[in-house]
Design goal:
CATH superfamily of the largest domain: Histidine kinase-like ATPase, C-terminal domain
Helix content: 55-70%
Shape: rod-shaped
CATH topology of the largest domain: Heat Shock Protein 90
Strand order of the largest sheet: 2-4-5-7-6
Structural class: alpha+beta
Strand content: 5-15%
Radius of gyration: 36 Å
Largest sheet: 5 strands, mixed
Order of helices and strands: HHHHHEHEHEHEEHEE
């Protein structure tokens, strides 16, 4: 549509800016010849931009491209000269006017080259962008598929612990597990979920851990958000690895254990803080998959919130502490 508008404006320009008394002239050039010249220029522009340049300008046929380009421009000169001799002979008497008759053929040829280069560059950038998007989606699918089995494995470990104790809380734990699995199956594969649903997921997980540890672990947590703040969207299961890590590695049997979880939103900025008691263990004693959850969430943060997040992690004075900030706006 833009091309149609521009060429229509060029072809009708004499009839828009001139008058019948002046024979619709643009300077000394008759309006009818100006319109015919516009059609010739359109042939030069589209002939080069969409045929000669993309087909022949390469290492094999570059010489043919030069030849055909010269023929195209010279051919336009011949057509214009024929029109002037037979229909508009007075124009030939003015040497200055002649320059404005034949010069545009070269100008439109050069414009067509620039246009073709710009179009090709845009297409290359779009292809790269599409390729990056495809790679991003593929990587995210892998990361999301990775986090679910890892999380389920740790949850089932908790349930085995309750079963061994023959705890009467096992049934309630299974119900909470079903809520967690429902979320991971129906929400995690999607693009985004609301912050409220993510918090409900965290609450279910914390309740499940309470059933397992009871009063053995001091747990403090706060997710007090307004209705508007709950409506913000977030990558599913983005926060749970930090909470899971706190319960998995923050529970000691020699010293009192504690876990503190805080989530708040202020002016479109979410702050998620998790602190827990921590007993350092030798590297050789760590499980091979102990860092899958945190490594996974780091990768997803870099993919989805590259310039919109900060993540601070430290483990000093037997305290493991993370602070994650996300910008929703």
């Amino acid at each position: 549509m833009l091309h149609v508008f521009i060429w229509s404006l060029l072809l009708l320009l004499p009839f828009l800016v001139s008058s019948t008394e002046k024979d619709y002239r643009i300077g000394d050039i008759p309006g009818f010849f100006f319109a015919l010249g516009g059609l010739i220029h359109a042939v030069i522009f589209y002939g080069n931009a969409f045929f000669l340049y993309p087909v022949f300008l390469n290492k094999r046929f570059w010489w043919l491209y030069i030849l055909l380009s010269v023929l195209l421009i010279v051919g336009s000169f011949q057509v214009k000269f024929y029109l002037l001799v037979n229909w508009f002979p007075p124009v030939l008497a003015n040497d200055t006017t002649i320059k404005f008759v034949f010069g545009p053929s070269v100008a439109f040829f050069i414009i067509s080259i620039v246009y073709r280069k710009v179009i090709d560059q845009i297409r290359v950038e779009e292809a790269l962008k599409e390729r990056r998007t495809t790679q991003l989606e593929t990587e995210l699918k892998f990361l999301r598929s990775q986090i679910n089995p890892h999380f389920l494995f740790n949850i089932l470990t908790n349930l085995v612990s309750l079963a061994r104790k023959k705890s009467d809380k096992l049934e309630e734990s299974l119900l909470l597990l079903s809520d967690l699995m429902r979320y991971s199956v129906y929400e995690a594969p999607g693009k985004n979920t609301t912050l409220q649903k993510e918090i409900e997921y965290l609450n279910s997980y914390i309740q499940l851990q309470k059933l397992r540890f009871g009063k053995e672990v001091k747990m403090d947590y706060s997710f007090n958000l307004s209705e508007e703040e709950n409506a913000y969207t977030i990558e599913p299961m983005l926060l749970i690895p930090f909470v899971e890590n706190a319960f998995k590695h923050g529970i000691g049997y020699n010293k009192p254990s504690w876990i503190d979880i805080r989530l708040s939103v202020n002016e479109g900025k979410m702050t998620f803080a998790v602190s827990n008691s921590f007993e350092p263990t030798p590297a050789a004693d760590k499980e091979e998959n102990s860092n899958i959850g945190i490594s996974n969430v780091k990768s997803r943060l870099n993919l989805l919130y590259k310039d919109k997040h900060t993540l601070l992690i430290n483990d000093q004075n037997n305290t493991f502490h993370i602070i994650l900030t996300l910008l929703f706006r």
